[in-house]
Automatic annotation (TrEMBL):
GO molecular function: phosphatidylcholine lysophospholipase activity
Name of this protein: SGNH/GDSL hydrolase family protein
Keyword Hydrolase: yes
A family per Pfam: Lipase_GDSL
Entry annotated with the keyword Hydrolase: yes
Record-linked InterPro entries: Ester_Hydrolysis_Enzymes, GDSL, SGNH_hydro_sf
Keywords: Hydrolase
Organism domain of life: Bacteria
Length: 231
């Protein structure tokens, strides 16, 4: 509208001479307005909800920075997570997740359910995650809910989780039954050589933060943004 008024203000016989000047001025104004609009947008709020793979993950800061650059708007990633906990604990933390009023919820809650000594049966784990998804969807109907499979386990940490794949499949099935999203980060880890994977996950369960960022962030970035963000 401003550009049109400027154009009309220029005498007809001088418009050709002023055409490029006005065009450049209008492009600058449009560019500046776009940047201002992006800065004024509220942040995209993400809650990462899970176990030590989130609490000790270290990938959240990378996701926050990369997604903000991709979307050209602020992004804030917070965590509701605790090492060693199961889906039963997660059921008691839903008020904390809801209080954040997130736009996106990232969930990984199978890892400790799958340990032999936790005594969380596959059926109970599946029921728990179903209840979690139902409550979150009911209380946050506009939020995107994304379940995740994280990294592989090895050594003793793998031995105490002999059926972890079944737990992942059960949680994935509950998400799919509700039309919710699922991101599988395991293929990214499987593309590493055995030596590189061992170096990236030295204790057999918890990736180094820089390795987790390198593998997990690109997968989440493309899934959330729905486009190539240069990763």
């Amino acid at each position: 509208m401003i550009c049109l008024r400027l154009w009309r203000a220029v005498p007809t016989e001088r418009r050709l001479a002023w055409a490029w000047v006005l065009l450049l001025a209008c492009l600058v104004m449009v560019s500046s307005t776009g940047e201002s609009d992006a800065e004024d947008l509220p942040p995209v709020k993400i809650v990462a909800f899970g176990t030590s793979l989130t609490a000790r993950g270290g990938w959240q800061a990378g996701l926050e920075a990369k997604l903000a650059a991709c979307l050209q708007r602020p992004v804030r990633v917070d965590s509701v997570a605790k090492s060693g906990e199961t889906s039963a604990w997660a059921l008691s933390q839903l008020d904390r997740v809801v209080a954040e009023e997130p736009d996106i919820i990232l969930i990984e809650l199978y890892a400790n359910d799958a340990t032999l000594h936790r005594l969380v049966s596959l059926a109970q784990s599946r029921k728990n995650i179903g209840d979690i998804l139902d409550q979150l969807h009911r209380r946050l109907p506009r939020a995107r809910i994304i379940l995740m499979a994280m990294n592989p386990f090895s050594g003793l940490r793998g031995l105490i989780r002999p059926f972890v794949g079944s737990y992942i499949s059960a949680h994935q099935a509950e998400a799919q039954k509700r039309g919710l999203e699922f991101v599988d980060n395991r293929p990214g880890w499987e593309r590493l050589s055995a030596d590189d994977r061992a170096a990236a996950i030295p204790d057999g369960a918890h990736p180094r933060p820089e390795a987790a960022t390198r593998i997990i962030v690109p997968a989440l970035l493309g899934h959330i943004a729905g486009r190539d963000c240069g990763e």
